[in-house]
# Entry
Amino acid sequence: MTASSVTALPDALPDALPDALPNALPDDLASALLVGRVWRPAPIDGPAVVVVRAGRLVDITHHAATVADLFERDAADMLAIIKSAAGEDLGDAASLLQAALDGGPGERGLGLLAPCDLQAIKAAGVTFAVSLLERVIEEQAKGDPARAATLRTELQATIGANLAEMVPGSDAAMRLKTELSARGLWSQYMEVGIGPDAEVFTKSQPMSSLGHGAVVGLHPSSHWNNPEPEIVLAVNSRAEIVGAALGNDVNLRDIEGRSALLLGKAKDNNGSCAIGPFVRVFDGDFTLDTLRGCEVGMLIEGATDGFTLAGSSRMREISRDPLDLVAQTCGAHHQYPDGFMLFLGTMFSPIKDRGAAGGGFTHHPGDKVTISTPALGALVNTVGRSDTIAPWTFGVRALYQNLARRALLAGRPA
# Structure
């Protein structure tokens, strides 16, 4: 085995800005079935479930008080509501997306929210070979980014195998596990990367995710961190994958690197989860196979230092199929009565030096992060600190109090 056979680490794409930033809406908008949420100002003063039809936002809250309710309908009923249920026209979708980027309310005072509500927010980790190597580096570096470059070279030379071709739980994977253990190189990240059991953790709480245009948060004690561009599945209580969105699984490399037992602190903080702009629902044109062929792009633009970094995650290189990840998350062993959103993992682990040589990448305040793929559009967020951005105050109790005041809990209209 040689170092040259290791899957290349992606600082992959050119650092130059593209000629045109990706559209926040899918390229095939005319055929896309998009579901989302907006905040409606007084007198409603609460969230509304919306769909996008012919580029317009239509409020369908009187047919489904929450997105979780909508996704619980049988497929034919759900699709009929999305395509044709009567609702109030709230204006142009693209204009609201732009207003969210500009930091203000859109037409009629609307605000864009994450396109999920009551669902649990779960995430699968170490599902790509490159991500696996970077997690091992974090562990070995004990949270010190200055050691990462040396460790990366050593691990590539030592492990050598093309992990991207390794099927988790296979006989070949178990032989590699035995070999690495004998050489003192086994890691808890190797266990979930090539072992039979996936890493699935709670990324964030229901109602806490941010949407397109929001400022995501980094814990103030973190000094080595990065975005993680991912596809996020929308799954109902019956473990049926309803559709997908884009997500940013904001990652604190130094905190998790100190100890995997700090995963909760590294992953679940105020503003540390962004999903959007909309959930695209499966139909004849958009399927799980579409997602399997997606390439998820990432662009980071520094606000003050002129730094740019581009890269991508190619879903065809994922080590665990999305159906397997859903089955490991939900089944006879575990239920989610309100459904769940599942981040599928990323292969994008930025390593480009941003300051001193060997210092690697970390976020600066004001960074603009664009995550995109043609079938889902683009999710754009800027970066702040978890203790200085707006606190999270509108949770599940507040949602149900709001829906009760609006008489939306008495049952569905005929």
The longest strand covers residues 241-249. The chain has a mean pLDDT of 88. Residues 129-141 form the longest helix (13 residues). The two ends are 65 Å apart (CA to CA).
